[in-house]
Every structure is written in C-alpha cells, then in structure tokens.
Write a structure and sequence with these properties.
The N and C termini lie far apart (89 Å). The protein has helices spanning 2-18, 22-26; strands spanning 36-43, 65-68, 71-74, 76-78, 100-104, 112-117, 123-131, 137-150, 153-162, 165-166, 170-172, 175-181. By secondary structure, the protein is mainly beta. The longest helix is centred in the N-terminal third of the chain and has 17 residues, at 2-18.
Length: 182
C-alpha cells in the first residue's frame, strides 16, 4: 500500500516538477552587438586637420601610434578603415576584432580609427594612449558596455574621457567622432 501511495504521489508531482518556467516558454532572445570603434579627428589650434597633407602642419599618419593594454599599434593606411584589416576568422557572428590604429587612403577629411571593442566585454575607464609625432601623448579612457533596462531593451554605452572629462562625440557617416586638438 505504501508503494501504491508513493507511486500516486510521484505521478501527481511529476507534471509540476517537469514544467517549464515562464521565461523558457516565451523563448530566449539571443543578442548580437555590433563591435564598436573610436574615431578621432586630429586638428591644430586653427582647426586644420593634422592628417591632411595639404595642411602645412600635417603629420604623417604612419608616425602616429596607439598604446592599448601595453601593446603598441602603429597607424596603418587602408582603403576601408572600418573593415580592414580583415579577420582571418570566418563566422556568422559579429566578433570584435582588434584592427588597431588605422586611417583611410583618402587624404582629405582623414581621421584615425581604433578598435574594435565588444560592449559585452564591459569596458569601464579603460586606458588608451595616442602617441603623436611631436613626442607628446594624449591619454584617454573609455567605456563600452551594455545597460540592460529589461531583457528586451539593452542600451550600448560608449564614451571617451580626457582628463576625467567626457568628450563630446558627434555623429559621422562612420559612427561617433571626437576631436583632439594638437
């Protein structure tokens, strides 16, 4: 009789113990976040682009480097600074691939690009140093992370700071750009 009661109890509890929770019933949302990069417009005190060879105070991009995580990244000149150099990894994901410091072959309106960074890595006050041809440096810190307002509403936060002051970012055709005066 005890075995019979135990069997009934198990049969009664089995549907309750094996049911899915509400979250599983609604399905799981998989998020894929676009890798982020930083774009820098470098100008002199008169507002002239320091990377434009038409400017008499121009700097050669290849004389500029960036230091990130104790690694030095020399500036490379590429046709498509957002997509080059290419990753050797073929995937359907959007992985953040460190492309280093780069600029475009287009000499007019030239800007520097650095990255890429995945907001999923949760960067906060991460240092990045730009090394200029005149021997000076600009030390920046950046944030690149996600705020989850709800599971359906993530917000990607990307900010740059110079001397603990948030830098103004303006929209360009490539994304967000900050201006550095040198």
């Amino acid at each position: 009789m005890k075995t019979f009661r135990l069997s009934l109890l198990i049969l009664y509890l089995l549907p309750l113990l094996s049911s899915c929770d509400k979250e599983e019933e609604e399905g799981t949302i998989l998020w894929d976040f676009v890798p982020q990069h930083f774009e820098f417009l470098v100008v002199d005190q008169n507002g002239n682009n320091r990377l434009d060879p038409a400017n008499e105070n121009a700097w050669k991009p290849e004389d500029i480097t960036a230091t990130y995580k104790n690694e030095n990244y020399p500036c490379t000149i590429v046709d498509e600074p957002l997509n080059q150099p290419h990753s050797e990894i073929i995937t359907r994901q959007l992985p953040a691939y460190m492309r280093g410091l780069r600029t475009s072959t287009e000499e007019q309106n030239r800007a520097l690009f650095f990255g890429d960074f995945s907001p999923e890595t949760n960067y906060k006050k991460t240092p990045l140093i730009l090394n200029w041809p005149d021997g000076t440096q600009t030390t920046l810190t950046f944030d690149c992370y996600i705020i989850w307002h709800s599971k359906e509403n993530p917000e990607v936060v990307i900010k740059l700071y110079h001397e603990d002051q948030e830098m103004e970012m303006k929209d360009t055709r490539f994304g967000k750009q900050v201006t550095i005066r040198k």
